[in-house]
Amino acid sequence: MRIIYCTDLHADFDGIAKSLKTFIEERKPDLIVISGDLINSAYTSEAQIKKHEALMKPLMEATHQQLQSRIQTQKIDISPAEFFRCIPIIATEIIENQQAPQEVKKVVKDYLKNLEEAQDFMEMQYSIIKHAFPQALVLPGNYDMDLDDTELKEKNLHKQTKEFGEIKIAGYGGSATEKGMPLCPQTIPPELVVAFNEYIHEENLNSEPWAFLEEAKPTIAFTHTPPRGYCDKETIEVKGKKEIIETGSFGILEYAKRGLSQLICSGHIHSAVGVEKVRTENKKFTAVINPGNFGRVNGERGGNFAEIELENGRFTKATLYTFMTPNDPKSLLIRSKHMKTVNDDLTSLIVNSMFYY
């Protein structure tokens, strides 16, 4: 079985996407998976972003007490990410409440109109992706809404499993902070972002992705967020000094240690490119793959993706590629090859050579 895997498209629909289509036509993979962030912005203008930010403070004041009261009286247990997704629901109820002050209703109406325009623009971009990659399964990232509300619904792998002969795959998208807050830029409303239901509360880890994957037990797990400590490191600047931090999921790491999947295909951290192995309870390993960002964003070249091969239901090889020139499918560079050995280990080879097909 041959799988083409890319992640972090960031609305780069031209150039690189066309080059990848050429590669797909030549290699004829059995499966194509694109793992968030599929788009890069929910807004068509800077004015929309500023309007949303200006409306959020009075809106939170109007909805916070009502939402907290509902959680306490109905004993609802929701994650921080789901808390944000409840805001539009409460806002709609305020509009329908005859006793709500008119000035509050005006703020709420403006907010809902702005949010609707953002959602419409997001859905339009997902329609483009559907037609650009009709064969691909997709997973939302921390820039994406729940794809079940879009034209990509039938291709959505989030919290789903699929079987291809003896190969079973499962997906869990999105990302969040350690406290479970939506991890999205100002170009994406947190109320629309798909919920990554993992957070630490009173030193206890609550992890839906861990529970979902533990039950699914796929051969390959596709997760936008990598496991903690593997293909997840990025460099940040703190008080003038550069520090390397780990940004992955604790729950997905715990799952990887169980050794129930052969591969975890992730993304999210553009610079954390590679194939690494997590030692498992049965003294073997789970391979973690992050090919790097496919889309060009924030000055990054992009064009990165992976080709994964399995034989008789077993992972055998992963090859990481990069298009050096976006519009030129002949500019394909093999960055590295990673092969599973006969004694169940992983050997990696840095290649950095041009590949013409």
Largest sheet: 7 strands, mixed
Give the name of the CATH architecture: 4-Layer Sandwich
Low-confidence stretches are: none
Number of strands: 17
Round the mean pLDDT to the nearest integer and report it: 90
* Strand portion: 25-35%
At the first level of CATH, the class is Alpha Beta
Adjacency order of strands in the biggest sheet = 3-2-1-14-15-16-17
What is the terminal separation in angstroms?
Answer: 19 Å
Structural class: alpha/beta
Tell me what the structure shows.
This protein is an alpha/beta fold and 357 residues long. The protein is built from six helices and 17 strands. Strands 3-2-1-14-15-16-17 form a seven-stranded mixed β-sheet. The chain has a six-stranded mixed β-sheet with strand order 4-5-8-11-13-12, with helices on one face. Helix 3 packs across helix 4 and helix 5 (208-216) runs parallel beside helix 6. It is globular, with a radius of gyration of 21 Å. The two termini are 19 Å apart. The model has no long low-confidence stretch (mean pLDDT 90).
